[in-house]
Design brief:
The protein is α/β, with parallel strands linked by helices and about 240 residues long. The chain has helices spanning about 5-15, 25-30, 80-90, 100-105, 120-125, 130, 150-160, 180-200, 225-230, 235, and strands at about 40-50, 60-65, 75-80, 95, 115, 160-165, 170-175, 210-215, 220-225. Strand 8 (about 210-215) and strand 9 (about 220-225) form a beta hairpin. Helix 2 crosses helix 8. Keywords: Repressor, Ribonucleoprotein, Ribosomal protein, RNA-binding, rRNA-binding, Translation regulation, tRNA-binding.
């Protein structure tokens, strides 16, 4: 089945040249092509030279976006005893124990991040098939299995994101909103690039970065010159 491209997107595609843009130029174009009737998200799609079917080539980590996500992040916490009250007092949108696990099993998904205390992980494990495909399963590597609930909740609400490479080695991350300034988008994109470089899997061989594209939610894909992005210093962004 051939997907029909809207007239709006056809017109926007004409603005994008088939070349790798300098980071600032690419982000200006992203903002220019964000013409939907709502505030679109800024998306990054990064192809890496990894094969995630091998454990030493998997990438799963977190990034703290300096300028935030532009979204209200709903945090759910699975804990027990006093930790449930601590979660509520720290700003969790939902907190509970076995009863929250039961609600999630029944299809309740009113959250963007799920944090669990280590002692609850044996019970949380039964949610793996449900949460895994959605990227919501708590993990120590992702900073979502912890007893320090106050810090974790605060960080995720402030702009910390968990992300992973999909099975084809591509990372998909929202790094802001189309109404952010170009400089703020660039600061977030630079933080994402540095995080991916810092967490390069030990089994990654050869060329690590293959391609980087950015786009607004409903806009065309724009290729970014990855070498220019990696060479950029944060002092140049500020």
């Amino acid at each position: 089945m051939v997907r029909k491209v809207s007239r709006r997107l056809q017109e926007l595609n004409k603005k994008v040249e088939e070349r790798a843009y300098e980071p600032l130029e690419a982000l200006n174009l992203l903002k220019e092509t964000a013409t939907a009737k709502f505030t679109e998200s800024a998306e990054a799609h990064i192809r890496l030279g990894i094969d995630p079917k091998y454990t030493d080539q998997q990438l799963r980590t977190t990034v703290a976006l300096p300028k935030g996500t532009g979204q209200a992040v709903r945090v759910a916490v699975i804990a027990r005893g006093e930790k449930v009250a601590e979660a509520n007092n720290s700003g969790a949108n939902i907190a509970g124990s076995e009863e929250l696990i039961d609600e999630i099993q029944k299809g309740m998904m009113d959250f963007d991040v799920l944090i669990a205390t280590p002692d609850m992980m044996p019970q949380v494990a039964k949610l793996g098939r449900l949460l895994g495909p959605r990227g919501l399963m708590p993990s120590p590597k992702g900073g979502t299995v912890t007893f320090d609930l106050g810090q974790a909740i605060g960080e995720f609400k402030a702009g910390k994101l968990e992300f992973r490479a999909d099975r084809t080695g591509i990372v998909h991350v929202l790094f802001g909103k189309s109404d952010f300034s170009t400089e703020d988008l660039l600061t977030n994109l630079k933080a994402l690039q540095e995080t991916i470089d810092r967490n390069r899997p030990s089994g990654a061989k050869g060329r690590y970065w293959r391609s980087v594209f950015v786009s607004a939610t409903m806009g065309p894909s724009i290729e970014v010159d990855i070498n220019a992005l990696r060479d950029l210093k944060l002092t140049d962004v500020a």
